Amino acid sequence: MLVALSVLAGCASNKSFVEGKRMLAEGKAEEGFAQLEQAVKESPTNAEYKAYLFSQRERTVNQWLAQAVTAQLNGNFDEAEAGYRRILKIDPYNQRANSGLDSLAMDRRHSKLLDDARALQQKGSVDQAMALVGQVLADNPRHREARILQRKLNEAKPRDTLASPQLKSALSRPITLEFRDAALKAVFEVISRTSGINFVFDKDVRPDLKATIFVRNSTIEDAIQLLLVTNQLDRRVLNDNTIMVYPNNPAKQKDYQELVIKNFYLANAEAKDTANLIRALLKTRDVFVDDKRNLVVMRDTPEAVKVAERLIASQDLAEPEAILDVEVVEVNRARLQSLGIDWPSQVGYGLLTGGTSTQTGTVTNPTTGAVTPVVTPGVAATVASGVINLRNNPLGLTTFIANPALVLHLQAQDTDANVLANPRIRVKNHEKAKIHIGDKVPVFTSTAVVNAGIAQSVSYLDVGVKLEVKPSIGLDDDVTIDVGLEVSSIVKQVDFGTSTAYQIGSRAADTTLRLRDGETQVLAGLIQDEDRRSITKIPGLGDLPIVGRLFSSNNDSRSKSEIVLLITPHIVHNLDLPDRQISEFRAGTESSIGGMGAVVGGVSAQSASSPVAPAAPAEPPAAPAPAAPSAPAMVPIPGIVPYQSAPPSQPAAPAAPAK
Predict the structure, then answer these.
(1) What pLDDT band is residue 200 in, cutting at 50, 70 and 90?
(2) What is the pLDDT of residue 647?
(3) C-alpha dihedral, 167 to 168 to 172 to 177, nearest 10°
(4) What are the Low complexity biased-composition ranges (predicted)?
């Protein structure tokens, strides 16, 4: 009874095992592993079932893990989650799948935070966007998208044009000023009363400076900058509510102007080129280049550093890249026909090599008196292979035919050969890529060296298919390719003394192509055509009509080879152009990089040294309301007469002094 039960259990487990293997082969992984686990459960001691289950499950889990990780990296979170959960169905305790689900939840949260940060960036809430990006970087400091967004936010974040420490928000309050030939320090006193900012003047600031300024609804910061620039003055922030005003000359700039140091770690641009750019455009003298780290360090004013940041952001871009699918085909066609009879072509008379004889005496004819030598035969003369002995005499002289065989040629041969090379190379923009498919042939050279004899040297010659390409990727996804193709082969070897050289046959073409992304161009026509015909015949007999074919051998051969090149460019990525705010911006004036012209816009001012008649306002400015001190205001003080326009026919009436 026990034996019968064990046999039935074995049959059931074998059925589950076979069924599980079939399902795995059909791609039904979950059902197949369920059957295999059932087979192992029914036969726990069967090592074959266990080994197959574990090996197949490990292979499948690794494959699914790779797919899930790829989907997660590409941002396909739903697909990645489905992959991880599919793994847990066949391997519930897989640590990598559980960790993948945990990291997936974090990635989803990070993606939501980054989306919110981008939305805030579009609304102009840079500080709030920076806070969200900071949360992502706190969890994963190497998060690529978060770091890129942080860099963009830093570039777009409005910066105070004054050096640190920053002034209070009073600088951004609006103000209206209308003064004509007023004392400069008195105008600054008005601004001080309105904004609460303290002004300290250097001892070299002239007390008689006058200012004429007409601004409406301008920020206090812009108004201060206008007054300073039009009177050849500059400023330095001393603390949160105090500004030092000093003459804008080289001596005072060295004393008061604050400099900052900025390190630029470059990802794509060359450090030397970037340093030359900074020196040429910003006139910065203090620039250090570290080629090892691809680092540029500059020291200059905060305004110049800000301009340098935008310049480098527009230059430090990844070079475009393209993949070139190249197919080189050499088509060889050869036709050979050999028909006829090879007749013996040499008849000789002489002493065969190897035959010897010895003269032992002479015999005299008593009648005639003639003397005949007596020759004793020695070693018999041997007939070489391929030689027929026609006649022998006692002296060993022989008539012979050197090539006696009659050879009938009946041969026709056709040969078609295609040599195909299909390399796939990735190359940067404006960089050369070389392909060589063939052999390196050694060439030996002997050189006479004084007091040293003969020196042997070897060099190598490239023979085969050589292709050189240089792409230039345009912004319109057109690829201009400089193509150089050469196909060479050894024609014959040339020996000169102890040196060896080769005669090389070559076919070459150089051209420039302009192709669209994915367009294929075929270059053909590099043809080598060779036609040969040779006849070997017996003189006279071979020239007879018809029967002359019996006394001749004809050899006709024709060979033709053609080189065909097919090239297809595929752009991997093109130049990622920066935003307009990076590629186009105001850079200040010739004497002040990133200064007045880059900060102030939409306002006008004039100095006392070059007065210009102001345009008449549409209506007199209203006095500020006491309940709204932050509103734009024209603030009068005793001794200062605000300007008010009047009709041309009447003189301008002065305003009543403030009480």
Answers:
(1) very high
(2) 41
(3) -80
(4) 630-659
In whole angstroms, give the CA distance from residue 592 to residue 301.
10
Query: Which long-range CB contacts under 8 A does 435-438 form with residues at least 24 apart?
Result: 435/326, 435/465, 435/466, 435/467, 435/468, 435/469, 436/462, 436/464, 436/465, 436/466, 436/467, 437/328, 437/464, 437/465, 437/466, 438/462, 438/463, 438/464, 438/465, 438/466, 438/488
- Give the span between the Cα atoms of 523 and 545, in whole angstroms: 48
| Token pair of 129 as six digits | 């966007």
- At residue 367, the pLDDT reads 64
Tell me the CA end-to-end span of the chain in Å, nearest whole number: 123
Structure tokens at 121: 């960036």
Q: Provide the residue type at 220 as one letter.
A: I
Structural tokens at position 577? 């152009």
DSSP strands (E only) in 159-232: 174-183, 198-201, 210-219
Q: How far is CA 511 from the centre of its chain?
A: 23
Q: Pseudo-torsion of CA 209, 210, 212, 213, nearest 10°?
A: 50
CA-CA distance, 372 to 131, in Å (whole number)?
A: 131
DSSP states of 254-308: HHH---EEEEEE-SSS-HHHHHHHHHHHH---EEEEETTTTEEEEEE-HHHHHHH
Task: Grade residue 286 by pLDDT with cuts at 50, 70 and 90.
Answer: very high
Whether 412 and 354 have beta carbons less than 8 Å apart is answered as: no
pLDDT digits (tens, 9 = 90+) for 481-530: 999 988 888 878 877 766 777 888 888 888 899 999 888 888 877 776 77
Contacts of 510 (CB under 8 A, 6+ apart): 482, 483, 484, 485
**What is the per-residue pLDDT across 216-239, written as a single tens digit (0 to 9) for each?**
988 888 899 899 988 999 988 888
Reported as a single tens digit per residue, the pLDDT across 546-557 is: 777 677 777 777
Place of tokens 């040599």: 419
Please work out, in degrees rounded to the nearest 5, the angle formed at the alpha carbon of residue 284 by the alpha carbons of 283 and 286: 150
Q: Three-state DSSP class for 340?
A: strand
Domains of the chain: 15-93 (1.25.40), 108-156 (no CATH), 165-256 (3.55.50.30), 260-317 (3.30.1370.120), 324-330+412-573 (no CATH)
Tell me the two tokens of residue 335. 């036709």
